[in-house]
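Q&A log
Question type: sequence-to-structure
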Amino acid sequence: MMSAIREVQRILHMLEDGLLISVLTSMLLMAVVQICLRNFFDSGLLWGESFLRILLLWLAMLGAMVATRESNHIRIDVLSRYLGPMSSKAMGLVTNLFSAVICSIVAYHAFEFVQFEFEDKTIAFGNVPVWACQSIIPVGFFIIAVRFVINGVVTVMPGKT
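Response status: OK
Response body:
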């Protein structure tokens, strides 16, 4: 059972990393194309800047998801330096669960925001609706919240230093 869970987790991590690499590569290519078109042909893609802004949003959310997955997000650890091992574990659990609650609240409100954009039928560029571009926000914060819960539980597990 655990090996199946680990395999699914490995596949999901690969998909997440692949999407992150794809978004970053797309951003770089689009920026280079825009620069070349503007400098050499005095034109550019009308939707290029909007597309880059949306890719930046996706890049930031995917990066935050990976950072939480790896427990490499920004943290203030002044107290944990002075606490004992058990108190430090308890503090890790509390901060991870608090972060999960905050991310869950943000995910809920982001879902409502995306739902409003869906009902409004606003177009971002071309025929791409705004809600599709912003859908990474509630999904990303939900995944981050789940990972904070997992990180909190792992923090207090026996054998974890």
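Response note: The two ends are 25 Å apart (CA to CA).
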